[in-house]
Amino acid sequence: MEMRDLKVHFDLRASALARLIGGGGETVKAVDGVNITLRRGEVLGLVGESGSGKTTLGRALLGLVRPTSGQIMYGEQDLAKLPQRHLRLLRRRLQMVFQDPHAALNPAMDLRTAIGHPLRIHGLVSNKDEARARVVDALERVGLTPAKQFLDKLPAELSGGQKQRAVIARAIICGPELLVADEPISMLDMSVRAKILELMLDLKRELDLTYVYITHDLATAKFFCDRVAIMYLGRVVEIGPTEEIFADPKHPYTRALLGAVPDPDPERQVPRDLPRGEIPDAAAPPHGCAFHPRCPLAFEPCGWEARDLRAMFERRWIQFGEDMLSKEEPLVSSLNDVGPGEKVARLRVPSGRQLSELTQLFDEARAETPDDPLWRGVESIDSDDDAVVVRFRTGIDPGLLRQNDVDVACHLHDPSLRPVAQ
Ligand SMILES: Nc1ncnc2c1ncn2[C@@H]1O[C@H](COP(=O)(O)OP(=O)(O)OP(=O)(O)O)[C@@H](O)[C@H]1O
C-alpha cells in the first residue's frame, strides 16, 4: 500500500457570529501530505502525541474517512477515489482493531454472533455450521480456548484482555491482509498488554498480515514495530527502521519524545520533558516546520512568524513572574491581533506609553534570553514614529531528507542550509 501526498482536512463549521461577520470556518489539517509505502508483512508504527493525526491516517487507509487529496494505492486501486460500494467489498481485507475493547463489542451480542458478523456481511459463509466452524477457528487462534466455552459468552463475562482477543478474532475472521491497530493495548491491564502484542505477532506470522500500529507509547513501538513513522501535526517528521530511530533519533521532536519515555517504575517516573509549549492548534499550525516554536535547535529557515513573538514574551513572563507580566503585557498587546503566517509584527505604542519603553523592552528581552531560538529568526527590529517593527526571516517548509535508512524532515540535516547536522 502506498500513500502519496495524502491529505485529510476537516472543515470546521464557522460559529454563527463568525458567519454573520463574513468569516468562514477553520480547516484542521489532520493529515497533511503524507508519503509512506507500507511493505507487505511489516509492522509500521505511527507514533506521536495526541492530535498528530495518527488515527485519522489509520482511518483513511481503511476508507473510513475520505482523503481531501492524494492517493492510497492498494495494488492497482486508489482507495482515495474508490466509490463507497467498492470500498465496502475491500474492507474485509482491511481491518481495524480499536483502542477500547469494551466499546467495540455489542454488550447484548454473544461472541458467536459478534465474531461471525463480518462473515455474514461479506457473504463468506453459506450456513450456520460453516459460520460456527470459522468462529471456533478464530477463537482458537486468539487463544480463547476451549472455543466452545466462549461461543455463547457475552462481553460482560470476559476480562479486558479476553475482550480484546475477541475483537482481534472478529478482525481476522475474514482473512484480512492489513490490520490497523489503534492503541490496541492502552486500555488493558499492564499484566496482559505484552500477551496481546505477542498474540498479534504470532497471528502476523501465521496469517501473513501487515500491521499499522498506532500509539503514543514508544516503549511498545520499540518492541513491536519494524519501522516507525513519527508524526507531528499531520506530517511525518521522521521515518525509518525502529532500531535506527531509537539508537540515533534525528529529528529534534523524535529526540524529545524519546527523552520523555516514562520509567516503568512508577516511583521513578521521568517527567515528560518535551520542549516548552503545547502542541499548537492544528487549525492554525505554525509556518515552516510546525515544530519550530517548541524546538530548542530551531534556526533561521525554520518558519518564524509574528505569532512566535507573543510566545516568547509568554515564556519570559512565566520565567520572570507576575510583576513583569503586568508591566509588559499592555505594551505588547497589539501582538494579540497577529494572525498565522504574518512575517512582520508591528507593535504600536499604546496611548500614554512611550516608544522608548517598547524599544527598551526588546533590548532587555534579547539581553536576558539571548539563547532563545526566536532571535535566530528575527531579521530586523526597527522603530518608526509610533511602533516597533519586527521582521522575520523567510521560512522554508522542510521536506523529507534521506539520512542512511531514515528519512527526516528537518533543516538541521540539510547541508545547503546548515553544513553540519547537530
Ligand atoms: N472528524 C473530525 N472533525 C474535525 N476534526 C477532527 C476530526 N477527527 C480528527 N480531527 C482533528 O484532527 C487532528 C488529528 O486527530 P487524530 O485523532 O487523527 O490524532 P491522533 O494523533 O490520533 O490523536 P489521539 O492519540 O488523541 O487519538 C486533531 O486536531 C483532531 O481534533
Write the layout of secondary structure elements.
Elements (H helix, E strand, L loop, with lengths): L1 E10 L4 H5 L6 E11 L5 E5 L6 H8 L7 E6 L2 E2 L5 H7 L3 E4 L3 H4 L6 H11 L6 H14 L5 H4 L9 H13 L5 E5 L7 H18 L2 E6 L2 H7 L2 E6 L2 E7 H6 L4 H8 L46 H15 L1 H7 L15 E5 L6 H14 L5 H4 E6 L3 E6 L8 E3 L2 E3 L14
Parallel strand pairs: 3-8, 3-9, 6-7, 7-8
Antiparallel strand pairs: 1-2, 1-4, 4-5, 9-10, 10-15, 11-13, 12-13, 14-15
Helix pairs in contact: 5-6, 5-8, 6-8, 8-9, 13-14
Bound molecules: adenosine-5'-triphosphate (ATP).
Keywords: ATP-binding, Nucleotide-binding, Transport
Protein name: ATP-binding cassette domain-containing protein
Family: Belongs to the ABC transporter superfamily.
